[in-house]
Design a protein that fits this description.
single chain, alpha/beta, 7-stranded mixed β-sheet, 4-stranded antiparallel β-sheet, 15 strands, extended, EC 2.3.1.50, pyridoxal phosphate, PyrdxlP-dep_Trfase_small
């Protein structure tokens, strides 16, 4: 009974409120009624009336439709190639037959001399992690002497995902000016504060570490996460970092170390364990080791190995943290099982056949013995680097372009300041002429895995000569002689 009375009272109150509003503002009441009528009319109106009304449609015959379709030209999905890009595409050789140390060209059928390890490409596949992936991660960790590891399906994305997973906005990253492009993108995605030190200059690194600490104390800022990021053997010029000194600075100034061993893994050390084996340093002293599965193991992907417990704001497991926070792992499919199994077999070969590393170093020395006698070039690579970088001596000053003043730049990218200017198109043509001459003599281009190829950078007069343990000493010496003759011939012709 009380409920009915309450309802009637509420209705009367609403009616009185409406009448009071109408008396105060009759125009508002009329507007509300019109809006209500319009809403009712709209809801009851047929939504297909316009579609049923054929007065606004033009009827075409089948012939007219076919003619219109034939005349239609779709817009390109991408921008057309620039002239220099088109010329680069012309020089890209195509390999036919099985992949190996002695590839064949599809257009000529000529078999080439030494080839570097291939980089298997991987499209995104609908595959998930399986036991073979877990086995490979265990093999990598056991081989390097770390507690855990994680496998990424793309080699390029491993370092960006590692840095973005552990370094956040407000953290400090101190990086070498000579780091490769993948690491540069990784530092950008981390959104951390990046400070740079001169290329492979650990004295300058210590100066930067001191300046970072002074700045923090001056502004009385909190002690954030701090990282040192560098490469074992630099992709840029083949230089090697002084790992014991680097570890000493890491402990002295309390930084975490992220070391990219994409080139040194599988090529340096008695059994290919990289710089840790070469310098007799335990892998546990490095917080994170990054490596490539494509370079040495001739498979696909990349890995991250390190201690199981990574000190962050709290203790976290290295693998578990990256399984959840690493974008490349979360949003990408796993490496195909076949490639993972072949990579595990590659680790077993390194374990059981250390003689291939001795053969590799002998081939490196054989190639350098020939190229070191060429006055027109200089070799900045470390004596043990499997990729021999070659600079034209007339542009040797360019190697200093990565060095800056004692005060490190606060930039988003390690672009050199006051870089020398030169004829880029002319240098590109010269390098391509050298590669073409070497190719004509049976020494393959780097673009398809051969012994010589110009740098992909348009700011460097350099090309590389990778060595391989699958080749004989005579083959390596012949390949080096071809490069030597090509350099001398093209430079003489240019004069």
């Amino acid at each position: 009974m009380s409920t009915a009375i309450d309802g009637s009272t509420a209705a009367l109150e609403s009616l009185f409120a409406f009448l009071s509003s109408h008396q105060n503002d009759p125009g508002c009441t009329v507007l509300e009624i019109l809006l209500a009528l319009f809403a009712i009319r709209t809801l009851h109106q047929s939504r297909t009336r316009a579609e049923n009304d054929e007065r606004h449609f033009i009827q075409f015959s089948e012939k007219e439709v076919d003619e219109l379709v034939d005349e239609w030209t779709p817009e390109p999905r991408g921008a057309p190639l620039a002239p220099e890009e088109q010329s680069d595409l012309v020089f890209v050789p195509v390999i036919s037959g099985a992949n190996g140390p002695r590839p064949k060209l599809a257009n000529t059928g000529k078999q080439l001399l030494p080839a570097t390890t291939s980089r298997a490409s991987l499209a995104r596949k609908l595959s998930k992690s399986a036991d073979v992936h877990t086995n490979f991660e265990r093999d990598i960790a056991d081989f390097l002497g770390t507690e855990a590891s994680i496998l990424y399906s793309q080699g390029f994305s491993k370092i960006p995902c590692v840095t973005s997973a552990f370094a956040k906005r407000g953290d400090i990253i101190v990086a070498d000016l000579g780091i490769n492009f993948a690491i540069q993108k990784g530092l950008q995605t981390s959104r951390s504060t990046v400070r740079w030190f001169d290329h492979n200059d650990l004295k300058n690194l210590e100066d930067v570490l001191l300046s970072v600490e002074k700045e923090r104390r001056k502004r009385r800022g909190p002690l954030t996460r701090r990282f040192i990021v560098t490469e074992g053997i630099f992709e840029k010029d083949g230089a090697m970092i002084d790992l014991p000194k680097l570890i000493e600075l890491k402990h002295k100034y309390k930084y975490r170390l992220i070391l990219d061993e994409s080139i040194s893994f599988g090529t340096i050390g008695r059994t290919g364990r990289g710089l840790t084996e070469l310098y007799n340093v335990t892998a546990t002293q490095i917080d994170t080791i990054i490596g490539s599965v494509a370079n040495t193991l001739n498979s696909s992907g990349g890995f991250c190995a390190g201690s199981r417990i990574v000190k962050k704001t709290c203790d976290e497991q290295l693998c578990d943290h990256q399984h959840i926070n690493s974008t490349s792992f979360v949003f990408s499919a796993a490496v195909p099982a076949l490639l993972t199994v072949s990579a595990s077999d590659g680790i077993n070969i390194l374990r059981n056949t250390p003689s291939i590393l001795s053969t590799l170093q002998e081939n490196v020395r054989a190639i350098r013995a020939v190229l070191d006698r060429v006055e027109a070039i200089t070799i900045p690579s470390h004596a043990t680097s499997p990729i021999i970088h070659i600079y034209l001596r007339s542009a040797a000053t360019l190697s200093a372009s990565t060095s800056v003043s004692a005060k490190p730049p606060k930039l988003a990218t390690p672009a050199p300041r006051d870089a020398p200017s030169f004829d880029i198109a002319g240098e590109e043509r010269l390098l391509q002429d050298i590669v073409d001459e070497a190719l004509a003599q049976g020494c393959g281009s780097r673009a398809h895995g051969g012994c010589a190829g110009r740098s992909s950078s348009r700011r460097a007069r350099a090309f590389g000569s990778p060595s391989s343990a699958a080749l004989s000493r005579k083959e390596c010496e012949r390949a080096a002689s071809v490069i030597k003759a090509a350099v001398v011939k093209m430079l003489t012709k240019r004069k």
